[in-house]
């Protein structure tokens, strides 16, 4: 039991240390002061290196952020430009549709009223009378013979 009590970490059973000599005490103080100084310097070096790395990372993040904002602004401008072009294209397409519709109507009207498109053969006519109703509007009135008039239309 004596051996285990001597080896136990309990302070009540630990043997008291021998007093230090003045030289040992001076060396111990010098070691502690040097260790404290080295720890402070090491902490300062770590802190300085960390601050330097943090500044570099912050600058990199700032540059990346600025580049992203520039890209976003460029994409917004491109999107606005494309939207303007799309609206212009839609307007032009609507105008072209109206123009094509108008041209098609005019062509249909011209085809119907055009010369040579409608052929008419009239037989058994007793009297033909040409009437002018207005500018560009002439009409023909026909009277048939007894038994009726025969008209063949070819469109």
What do these coordinates show?
- This protein has 155 residues and is of the alpha+beta class.
- It is 63% helix and 18% strand.
- The chain is built from 2 helices and 4 strands; from the N terminus they run ααββββ.
- The strands form 2 sheets. It has a two-stranded antiparallel sheet with strand order 1-4.
- It is rod-shaped, with a radius of gyration of 56 Å.
- The model is unreliable at 1-6 (pLDDT under 50).
What attributes characterize this protein structure?
155 residues, two-stranded antiparallel sheet, 2 domains, disordered N terminus, 18% strand, alpha+beta, two-stranded antiparallel ribbon, 63% helix
H/E topology pattern: HHEEEE
* Main sheet specs: 2 strands, antiparallel
How large is the radius of gyration? 56 Å
Into how many domains do the coordinates divide?
A: 2
* Structural class by helix and strand composition: alpha+beta
Low-confidence stretches: 1-6
What is the count of DSSP helices, taking H or I runs of 4+ residues?
Answer: 2
What is the residue-averaged pLDDT? 82
How would the blueprint of this fold be written?
Layout: H1 2-7, H2 22-113, E1 119-123, E2 125-134, E3 137-144, E4 150-154
Keywords: Coiled coil
Biased composition (Low complexity): 1-11
Protein name: Kinetochore protein Spc24
């Amino acid at each position: 039991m004596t051996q285990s009590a001597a080896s136990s970490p309990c302070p009540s059973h630990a043997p008291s240390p021998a007093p230090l000599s003045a030289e040992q005490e001076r060396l111990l103080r010098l070691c502690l002061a040097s260790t404290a100084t080295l720890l402070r310097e090491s902490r300062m070096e770590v802190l300085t290196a960390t601050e330097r790395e943090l500044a570099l990372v912050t600058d990199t993040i700032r540059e990346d952020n600025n580049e992203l904002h520039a890209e976003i602004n460029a994409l917004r401008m491109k999107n606005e430009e494309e939207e303007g072009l799309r609206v212009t294209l839609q307007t032009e397409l609507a105008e072209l549709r109206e123009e094509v519709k108008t041209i098609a109507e005019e062509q249909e009207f011209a085809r119907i009223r055009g010369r040579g498109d409608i052929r008419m053969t009239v037989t058994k006519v007793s009297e033909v009378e040409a009437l002018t109703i207005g500018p560009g509007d002439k009409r023909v009135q026909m009277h048939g013979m007894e038994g009726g008039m025969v008209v063949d239309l070819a469109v």
